[in-house]
Design a protein that fits this description.
With 206 residues, the protein is an alpha/beta fold. It has one domain: Vaccinia Virus protein VP39 (Rossmann fold, 3-Layer(aba) Sandwich), CATH 3.40.50. Helices cover 43% and strands 23% of the residues.
């Protein structure tokens, strides 16, 4: 998919402007991205990202790994992500798939790692999504799930209120995600950042 120079530049300008709104409200996109990436790496083999969004996390990953398959239900959001990747030219390549995370279109054990940043709170029926994530990870594989913590959600709720909108999200706790994987026999670690918390779960080799 090709994009004009104008489209690339305009999309990048919008992204930078939005990041500046976040920064003034108390969320440093670059800082929190670096924190999540530091807890995500190393990654190897086949990698699936759940929740492409506008491609911020995807672009960061593609600067460090050669290939990522990314899935999102929203084709328009993925278009923004494609433009973001095309502008940044991070080095790695991405395969974009439009699909429902509650019914991932891959066989059991298809991926060495599944990652996600700031997407879980947008997903209804999160237990089904987690079940699908667990299903598609191979024996010995890895799952990294990052989302806003209480401070992060407060920042984004405030931004949305200022803009006359509501930050619609499902209410869940990352502690419940930790419990889910632990009860499935996975080894789990969790990390607390400024506005982000991260869960890293490793599937025991069979």
């Amino acid at each position: 998919m090709r994009f004009s120079k104008k489209e690339l530049a305009e999309n990048h300008a919008r992204l930078i402007a939005r990041n500046d709104v976040y920064r003034r409200a108390g969320y440093d996109t670059g800082k929190d991205m670096r924190f999540v990436v530091s807890k995500t790496l190393p990654l190897k083999g086949r990698i699936l990202e759940v929740g492409t969004g506008k491609g911020r996390f995807l672009t960061a990953l593609l600067g460090r790994v050669p290939f990522v398959t990314t899935v999102d239900l929203n084709a328009e959001e993925q278009r923004f992500a494609r433009i973001n990747v095309a502008y940044r030219k991070p080095g790695g390549r991405a395969r974009f798939v439009v699909a429902d995370a509650r019914r991932l279109p891959w066989r059991d054990g298809s991926f060495d790692a599944v990652v996600s940043m700031n997407a879980l709170h947008h997903m209804p029926q999160l237990a089904r999504v987690l079940g699908e994530i667990r299903r598609v990870v191979r024996s010995g594989g890895k799952v990294v799930l990052a989302d806003f913590n209480r401070r992060g959600f407060a920042v984004f709720d405030r931004i949305h209120r200022r803009e006359g909108r509501v930050h619609e999200r499902s209410k869940y706790k990352l502690a419940d995600v930790v419990k889910y994987f632990e009860e499935s026999g996975w080894r789990v670690a969790s990390f607390k950042g400024d506005c982000q918390d991260v869960v890293v779960a490793r599937k025991r080799a069979s």
